UniProtKB/TrEMBL annotation:
It comes from Ficus carica (Common fig). Its cofactor is FAD. PROSITE patterns: FAD_PCMH. Residues 173-346 form the FAD-binding PCMH-type domain. Keywords: FAD, Flavoprotein, Glycoprotein, Signal. This is FAD-binding PCMH-type domain-containing protein. Belongs to the oxygen-dependent FAD-linked oxidoreductase family. Coiled coil: none annotated. It comes from the Eukaryota. GO terms for molecular function: FAD binding; oxidoreductase activity. Residues 1-26 form the signal peptide. It holds the Pfam family FAD_binding_4.
Length: 610
């Protein structure tokens, strides 16, 4: 049995809740950058293996490698100007700091400054700039990377202002100045002349339902930083913690924990290919949420790169920002299938009445889908009950007999297994699947789809369920998922993390429809799910009608290009975060007042009280 103390997790990641940041525009930036680094032997980043343009044979495969929604990979959807796959957190910092230093309109020199133990990219602006000695520079981020070495300055006859050490002279062996005691920084004299800003998306696992980590419709052109190479996992069983980099998947985390212990686990998502960075920032619910809460509830530390290029841990970022990034499974397992003809409606209605109150060691997820009726050959609706129990089969049977005898659970329906094996069952892998499947970063669910979400505070009436069945039978491949809440989730305040869907929630609902490649009229499926969402309105949470951030839905609203209004963003923001949205916007106003990190549903900065 997994104990509370066994699942506290430290998370090292870099894609914070705002997920995107800016980059400066130049038609020749990419080509010049590649030419520069390919002729230099002293650069920090192996660009040929980390930077991919549309002309590169690997560009498409990298872009598609983790994207699960093929709808967002259609030719008509904008593609990034290039993809950068950093190998180290300092690479992410360098990419950010390069933009912060000024507009990189032309890259003219690459140099590794060994005497100062710094490896940086050097850019030249086509506007006036000054070279400022570090002690005299304006306040800049710790670890700021855009520095100028003496060789660079001499090569281009750059003047220096406010120099702390005048002893530059000329080296006797080479026509280079001697190193200064402190590095120099680019500092634009006229920041207002900066070129057009681009957006830069950060992707951890690529599972965003609307693809905002690898697609931008409000900002073009844009580039993508893919954290796929940042996937180190350090598990400390004695301390009951693990440091996890943002590019690691849920499956990798589960696998590495299981290598160290058979009784430890982490309460994150059922989907094993989810990138942990994006998953945590949305809350991270999973099959153990009724016992241990969300994945975000079990984060005890984090490292991020903020809008100023600083790498911050929990202490350095402060509790407001740490709060904002956290939201802003052995056991026995059984699957039982019921159809409408077998009384699925009454069974599901009873399930809604009891599930949020049963033993918190029990989690029963419900999948509702359209199947072929074996006898008549017609379509029918089936409900599948997929359960995880943190205990043995005998105790599970006693719990079920007391709380939900209508399900008819028997000993033969139960399989006692380790926690790590239970994750394969819950993720619907076939029996006997090797554990190494958890290390596969690519999702097995890759299709064209559209999804929406709701939260239930009261059971859906039987008559409304009948209406749901009728509408599902009208669609080709619809699915509805009911995830039970209650238990430990009722004990955590709505304001504890940005994820507010806690006490009083019986179920989270996900509606999903998918279609195949070559569909002549994909819009009809999107239209269907929008109508289904409207139909369910009277039976779900209201004021606001709540939604789950990690089931992102741009139908709820999105930011406008270059014009992010708090009032307009509140329309969708309060659905995801309720009253926490105001606090998130205030934190944003403090740490990123210029809205450096942004996308279609990023948090707008709020600089004044509301």
């Amino acid at each position: 049995m997994v104990s509370k103390s066994s699942i506290a997790v430290k998370l090292a990641y870099f894609a914070i809740f705002l997920q995107t940041f800016s980059w400066a525009k130049s038609a020749s930036t990419t080509d010049t950058f590649i030419q520069c680094v390919s002729t230099s032997s002293e650069v920090i980043v192996p660009v040929t293996t980390t930077l991919f343009t549309p002309n590169n044979s690997s560009f498409t495969s990298i872009l598609e490698s983790t994207a699960t929604n093929l709808r967002l990979l259609e030719p008509s959807v904008p593609k990034p100007e290039f993809i950068f796959t950093p190998l180290h957190d300092s690479h992410v910092q360098a990419a950010l700091s390069a933009q912060l230093a000024g507009t990189p309109l032309r890259i003219v020199f690459c140099y590794q400054q060994k005497d100062l133990e710094s490896r940086v990219w050097y850019l030249v602006l086509d506007q006036e700039f000054d070279l400022v000695d570090l002690p005299f520079a304006p306040p800049l981020a710790a670890g700021f990377s855009c520095q100028i070495g003496p060789t660079f300055a001499a090569s281009f006859a750059l003047k220096i202002s406010h120099q702390s050490s005048p002893k530059t002279g000329q080296s006797s062996s080479q026509n280079w100045p001697k190193p200064w005691l402190a590095p120099l920084l680019f500092f634009p004299l006229f920041p207002a002349f900066l070129a057009k800003i681009e957006i830069l998306g950060i992707t951890s696992g690529g599972h965003d339902y609307e693809g905002v980590s690898y697609v931008s419709e409000i900002e073009t052109p844009f580039i993508v930083i893919d954290l796929v190479n940042l996937r180190l996992i350090d598990v400390d069983i004695e301390d009951n913690t693990a440091w996890v980099q943002a590019g690691a998947t849920n499956g990798e985390v589960y696998y590495r924990i299981a290598q160290k212990s058979k009784i430890h686990g982490y309460p994150a998502g059922i989907c094993t290919s989810l990138g942990i960075g994006g998953h945590i920032t949305g809350g991270a619910y999973g099959a153990m949420l009724r016992k241990y809460g969300l994945g975000a509830d079990n984060v005890v530390d984090a490292r991020i790169i903020d809008a100023n290029g600083r790498i911050l841990d929990r202490e350095a970022m402060g509790e407001d920002l740490f709060w904002a990034i956290r939201g802003g499974g052995g056991g026995s397992f059984g699957i039982i299938l019921w159809t409408l003809e077998q009384g699925a409606t009454k069974l599901l209605y009873k399930h809604q009445q009891v599930m949020d109150k049963v033993d918190e060691d029990l989690f029963i997820n419900v999948l509702i889908q359209v199947v072929d009726a074996s006898e008549s050959g017609q379509k029918t609706v089936a409900t599948s009950y997929n359960a995880l129990f943190l205990g043995n089969a005998n105790r599970l049977l006693r719990v079920m007999e007391k709380s939900f005898p209508e399900l008819g659970l028997t000993q033969k329906d139960c399989v006692e297994t380790s926690w790590i094996r239970s994750q394969l069952y819950v993720a619907v892998y076939p029996s006997g699947t090797p554990l190494e499947i958890l290390l596969r970063p690519k999702s097995t669910f890759r299709t064209y789809f559209k999804a929406k979400s709701d939260f239930l505070k009261a059971p859906i009436p039987e008559t409304a369920l009948e209406g749901l069945w009728k509408r599902m039978l009208e669609e080709d491949n619809p699915r509805t998922f009911l995830t039970p809440f209650g238990g430990f989730m009722n004990k955590i305040a709505e304001s504890e993390t940005p994820y507010p869907h806690r006490k009083g929630i019986r179920f989270m609902v996900q509606y999903l429809t998918s279609w195949r490649e070559g569909e002549k009229d994909p819009e009809k499926h999107i239209d269907w799910i929008r109508k289904l969402y409207d139909y369910m309105g009277p039976y779900v949470s209201m004021n606001p009608r709540e939604a789950y951030l990690n089931y992102r839905d741009l139908d709820l609203g999105k930011n406008e290009r270059d014009n992010t209004s708090f009032a307009k963003a509140s329309v969708w923001g309060k659905k995801y975060f309720k009253h926490n949205f105001i606090r998130l916007a205030r934190v944003k106003g403090k740490v990123d007042p210029d809205n450096f990190f942004r996308h279609e549903q990023s948090i707008p900065p709020l600089k004044s009280a509301v």
